[in-house]
Amino acid sequence: MHSTRSKGAAVVMLCALIVAACGGRDIVAFDTATVRGALRTVVTAPPQEGGLLPPAPADGTSDGSGGSGIRPSGGKLDGAGGAREPIRLGTILPLQGGERDLGEPVLRTTQAFIDELNLRGGVRGHPLELIAYSACILCQSEALTAARRLVEEDKVFAFVNTYLMVVPFQSVLPYLVDKGVPVIQGGSFDQTDDALSPVNFATAPSGLFFGRLIPETLKRHTSSRAVGITYLDVPSETSGLPILRKELARVGIRVAAEERVQAAEDAVTNMDAVMTRMRAAGADGIIALDPAVLIFGRLAARRQGFNVPMVGPAAWSTLVEDGCGATCDDLIVTDTAGLSYIDRDSPQMHQFLDVMANRYPGGQLTGHTLAAWVGMQLTTHVLNQTGPDRRQFLAAMEAIRNLDLGTTSPLTFTPDRHLGGSRTTLLKLKGGKYYAFERSVDYGLAEP
Amino acid sequence: MIWVQYGIFGLGVGAVFALLAAGIVLTYRASGVLNFAHASTGVAAAFVNFELLERFPWMPVAVALLISVAFGALLGVASHRFVFAPVANSSQIVKLLVSFGLSGAIQGALGVVFSSLGNPGGAVRGHTLLPIERGITLAGASVPYQRVAVILVGLGVALGLALLVQRTEFGIQLRALAQNPVAARLAGLDTRRIEAITWALAGASAAVAAVLIVPFGPLNPLALNGFQLKALAAALLGGFVSLPAALLGGIGLGVLQELLLGAPAPLNGLRGVIAPTAVLVLLLLRVERFFVTEQEARAVQGDERLFNAGVRRPLLGSGKAWLLGAAVAALAVLPMSGFWAFVSTRAVLIALLGLSVTVLTGWTGQVSLMPGTFAGVGACLAWVLDTKLGFDFVLVVPLAALAAVPACAVVGLAALRLRPLYLAVGTVALAGFFDETLFRQAWFANSGKQMLVDRPDYIGGDHAFAVAVIAIVGGVFAFTATFGRSRTGRALSMVRDNPTAGEASGVNQLKYRLLAFSLSAAYGGLMGALLAYLLGAFTTATFSLLILSLTAFSVAAVGGIRSPLGAIVGAFLFVEATELFRTSGAISDWTTLLVGVGLVLVMSYSPDGLVGVGQKTVGRLRRTNAEVELVDVG
Asked: Which of B137, B146, B339, B580 is most worth mutating to test chain A (most A CB atoms within 10 A of its CB)?
């Protein structure tokens, strides 16, 4: 009796296995070569025309220039253009627990853009709808589950602004490539391997960005000839190190010491010793590849009387403004994503500031929030041309040349280059406030 | 001279480790609780300190500090009264899990409360008691006043606590309570009062540590998580009972950390490896015996009996029932969408990792906090065997499972010399060791970068792969159930329940402990290999302690750590329920808070987890039916 039952179970399982195997893969292969050939029109916007929200509706509920304008989000189009099917966009961000402070500003800014756009008629009459799921910043299984749900159950057209999720997207991107789902990153995304990126577009690559820009900055603006490098042990920073070392050697700057900071606790406890070590190694300048390391390193260096030039990415950081204050005066700061147009007087930047003030009161104006805005500007700019057709959308993205969104450096994408930006602005601090001291610096993506 | 500077910085760091370690030792002595929520208590006090000074700028920082320390003391007392006292008679493993839950609950509550007050964490720095930018010059090093305060206050408080325990009447009472709670009560000691005072002292010391150190970095609910592990390592030096040893351990660890930072390359780059190695060496040398009296050691030994009497028999099920269940599950997957088949496969794999915890911890009482690391070894092996060497899935999966066994043998060998709680901390260090060594190798883990593993065509679809995984994992569960009922399986339980009696009955502890580790490692390796195929692309970050290991441990514990069914229940709750209730744009800390509170409640009410709740309910129903029948007969 028992033997019969177990044999029965085995047969059932075998049948189930065969039936499932015969069903084959339920993944539709996506031919990126075809995509690239689908549309070759070069999309080049005249200066200050890309990424601008359409005119506000006549009732005055707009971006803040006229009225309060705060409306709840939703898929239903509430502006001009009639009711058409919403275009769904997906994002995955850390929204729970101790990491929510990272994800929340990005989500709220993205949602603010969408709410304002829907109020003004959406994209070609389609309202946009954002579906955002939470995953922790190291959780690959969780993020892949969320991505699959967005694509297969929620039927999103594209992903936007997942630039905080560098580690989880190691698992997610191959899936999205397979499905042909576009991913638009407003900020930089660790993307040193182009094989991964037929669908992924970022405004700047962190590794290449730091690698090329920082040595040039040191050479032009400091007399440092031996530097100490300190960085957080995360892929977005470590992946750029080989390029950074190579470029430093090219401009004749020696690496005196390198110090990997393992976690936030290291940054809290060890920066005094890190700076002591750098000084002992003969460093006459410091490169810090992370805002937290830069600020706490700067504070520690000052405490040690180690007053050497420091360079690193920390633009638009409230932590710098509030936490470092005058100690960070004369620190040379780049941004984290080619987005240092902090004081740019463009209609798009005004829209960003106004909409943020109205729809996200109290929201921080940081690199993260501006990046989220830029991501939505870029996505809707191309969607306006192609509509919700993935192949045409990807082709149009790859045809963008010198697109000025008014909030970042001009963007150029090609089939071989999905890293759009090439220029940034260098900043310094005075009394805890940023100011631009060199504009439109080319950080050169082409091999030197 | 420069080494003196590193030493001074190390003193500052070490003083914080020592302060936190002192609190951990105090609560362990008083209540037998290894409190993983200790640092979170301190962070809560640091948040209170920050809020006070933000909202009442006129308030002197010293007054804010005093109020914060009082808050820390109150939180300590409340933690004991409402969270740990209800599980006072439960096993160490239950208390450990409750402390994990409490830590999550405190961190979640901090997020909820302080965000609602308009202070998102992360971007703010705590207020300093003394100027942080200026300081005194010592041996050429400028030591800020705040750091001087950390050193002096930290050492002062830690030394004061040590003297309190060693030299005062209260200390004698506390020691008596630690060594024999029943005898202490019989001798007329008010043990509740002693415990309350001790928890207050521990909470206050955590508050002092946090308020002093947090201004050196950003203030957020996770700010002291790294400190917690270092403090545990320091407390370990004295077997969690010796305050002087914890003090020495904290200072030693801080100074060692800073000296290594200044060491020449390549020694400097190895500091991530050296710290966990040092912990392991100390553990294996049993350094605690130099600090702990024989009497204390015996008391600790008594504390570490993992399971108290009266718990229910584990629900094993028969091998055939498991196979039948797997067949039903395989059939149930077929009508699902590809996405839900994927989700179910993930749940089954988490259940398999939970089963590895059941076998090791539930059955033999060996607390390993690194099941995720075992899975990582399996996943990397799958990448090596499949992608690099071209082996087929049918060879890769069993080979990865088997090869994980020797790779993890080092843990098993260490386990033979360690008590369960020491092993728990030791495995945290070992997980760090694996992260810093094996998981950074190009040949084994692609230098920590992305690894791609393609499924073969015959199981390429979501449904086919789900059925294959269910078949494999169902077979493993069936084997485990059969094994648990066998003579060998019962011997494993004896190693846990009564090792001395086991030895007397001819049960070779070494053999059975190693067997449990091998089985657990094989299950972990198998899970990792299958997860690699499920994800298709991954890095070793997936297998970090805080992600997969604690998930597996919590899944097994909430479901029921001694029953294979518990792993299934926990995994489906964790994966499927999360997916069912997933909503768009849900921004909150409530999840962290609720998961923490849930873990505390489940462990408090039913140490055997949800399976235990089910057993209780069924037992009650049976008794009620039997009574009804008796009445009818009557």
From this structure: B339
Could you tell me which residues come within 8 angstroms of residue B132 by beta carbon, excluding any fewer than 6 positions away? Answer: A299, A303, B144, B145, B146, B215, B216
pLDDT at site A448: 36
Question: In sequence order, what are the beta bridge partners of A132?
Answer: A91
Q: Quick check: A80 and A122 in contact, CB under 8 A? A: no
- Inspect the interface and report whether the beta carbons of B330 and A138 lie closer than 8 Å: no
Instruction: Find the closest chain B residue to A320 by CA distance.
Output: B123
All residues of chain B having their beta carbon less than 8 Å from the beta carbon of residue A165 are none
Tokens of A398: 């790859």
Q: Are A20 and A377 in contact (CB under 8 A)?
A: no
Q: What is the β-pairing status of strands B451-452 and B141-144?
A: unpaired
What are the structure tokens assigned to B7, written together?
A: 């030493």
Q: Does A327 touch chain B (CB under 8 A)?
A: yes
Of A133, A140, A153, nearest to B542 by CB-CB distance is A140
Contact yes or no for A98 and B227 at CB 8 A: no
Tell me the whole-structure pTM to 2 decimals.
0.85
Distance CA B269, CA B261 (A): 8
Q: Read out DSSP for B213-258?
A: HGGGSB--TTTTHHHHHHHHHHHHHTTTT-HHHHHHHHHHHHHHHH
Is A147 within 8 Å of A154 (Cβ atoms)? no
Cα dihedral sign for B577, B578, B583, B587? positive
* Segments of chain B with pLDDT less than 50: 121-123, 302-310
**Distance to chain B for A372, nearest Cα, Å:** 15
Q: Is 0.85 exceeded by the ipTM?
A: yes
pLDDT in tens, B558-573: 898 888 999 999 999 8
Q: How many CB atoms lie within 10 A of CB A82?
A: 10
Reading phi first (left if > 0) and then psi (alpha if -120 to 50, else beta), residue B368 is in beta
CB pairs under 8 A between A and B: 260
pLDDT tens-digit series, residues B134-193: 677 776 666 777 778 888 888 888 888 888 887 888 888 887 777 777 777 787 788 888
Residues A48-60, mean pLDDT to the nearest whole number: 73
Residue B462's H or E segment, with its range, is helix B462-485
Closest to A66 in 3D by CA, of A119, A107, A111, A118 = A119
Give contacts of B12 with chain A, Cβ < 8 Å.
269, 272
> What does the block give as tokens for A255?
């690496």
B13 near B149, Cβ under 8 Å? no
Q: What digits encode the pLDDT tens for the residues B378-408?
A: 999 999 999 999 999 999 999 999 988 887 7
